[in-house]
Write a structure and sequence with these properties.
Number of domains: 1
Strand content: under 5%
Largest sheet: 3 strands, mixed
Shape: globular
Order of helices and strands: EHHEHHHEHHHHH
CATH architecture: Up-down Bundle
Number of strands: 3
Distance between the termini: 69 Å
CATH topology: Rhopdopsin 7-helix transmembrane proteins
């Protein structure tokens, strides 16, 4: 049967109240600016301040890049649609957004696992830390993180490109994500579902288990420390990362693992706002509020700009 191929999709959007669109545009613009500026400052501080040239901050810089990329893949188009009566996105634009969002999500997932391993080595094997987390090993871990994520995103996108979309073309979301797009396909999605299952099993569950194992050893090691100050010092080295991991996995689990209900769509949208905008906004704050070295680096950057 010959199908008329869809050349553009219509977005349902985030809100159903047109008279609030301008207000939300201003709010999201401020938050998007905060994401870009906050994470860019983190990257600049780590690059320009030599005391921050350590494995932990190397991975934090990668996380900041991922946060900017994740938010930029979704927010600009969403804000544009907020100010338009007809919220559309071209087929090619949708596939590009799907690739970018899947890439950023997968990268953050694997990157948080690499950061968990870094904290595990720092707390459980402090005397061997310099040898186990050399510059070469850190770069290899980062290359592995990005390679796995790019491969995963590319496979999902190519499998999506092979599908037929012949209508309806209303995406039940405010950006192009795999589940709402599969719901619109008029051809078999069998291979797509297999790939989703594989990705969920090895990429999502695998990284979750590795992160859990790392923190189990970290907690056991901290509990064995005799002095209270020693325990406090050890916990402070991983508290920021643990908070970021908790926020990220909480939003992912809430979105993809909870049972469906009549208001699942609205909950999906709120959860998506959480991991595409709120978490990238909070990450720079989490890593800087209690970190003296980063504050010193920020001070040097701003003092240099004043000169």
């Amino acid at each position: 049967i010959n199908h008329t191929r869809v050349t553009e999709f219509i977005m349902q959007g985030l809100f159903d109240h047109p008279h609030h669109q301008g207000l939300f545009f201003g709010l999201f613009l401020c938050l998007y600016t905060a994401v870009v500026m906050g994470n860019s400052l983190i990257i600049a501080a780590i690059v320009l301040h030599p005391p921050l040239h350590t494995p932990m901050y190397f991975f934090i810089a990668n996380l900041a890049i991922v946060d900017i990329f994740c938010t930029s893949s979704v927010l600009p188009k969403m804000m544009k649609n907020l100010m338009q009566e007809k919220k559309t996105i071209s087929f090619d634009g949708c596939m590009a957004q799907l690739f970018a969002f899947t890439l950023s999500g997968g990268t953050e997932l694997v990157l948080l696992t690499a950061m968990s391993y870094d904290r595990y080595v720092a707390i459980c094997h402090p005397l061997r830390y310099v040898n186990l987390m050399t510059k070469r090993i850190c770069i290899s871990l980062a290359v592995g993180v990005w390679s796995v994520s790019i491969t995963n995103s590319l496979v999902h996108t190519l499998l999506m490109l092979r599908l037929d979309f012949c209508g309806p073309k209303l995406i039940q979301h405010f950006f192009c994500e795999i589940p709402p797009l599969l719901a619109l396909s008029c051809s078999s999605i069998y291979f797509n579902e297999i790939m989703i299952f594989i990705a969920n099993t090895f990429l999502a569950m695998g990284n979750f288990l590795l992160t859990t194992v790392s923190y189990s050893f970290i907690i056991i090691t901290i509990l064995k420390i005799q002095s209270f100050k020693g325990k406090q010092r050890a916990f402070s080295t991983c508290s920021s990362h643990l908070l970021v991991v908790t926020l990220f996995y909480s939003s992912i689990i809430y979105t993809y693992i909870r049972p469906t209900s009549s208001d699942s769509l609205a909950k999906d949208k709120m959860a998506a706002i959480m991991y595409t905008l709120v978490i990238p906004t909070m990450n720079p704050l989490i890593y800087t509020l209690r970190n003296k070295e980063v504050k010193v680096a920020f001070g040097k950057i701003f003092s240099f700009r004043k000169k």
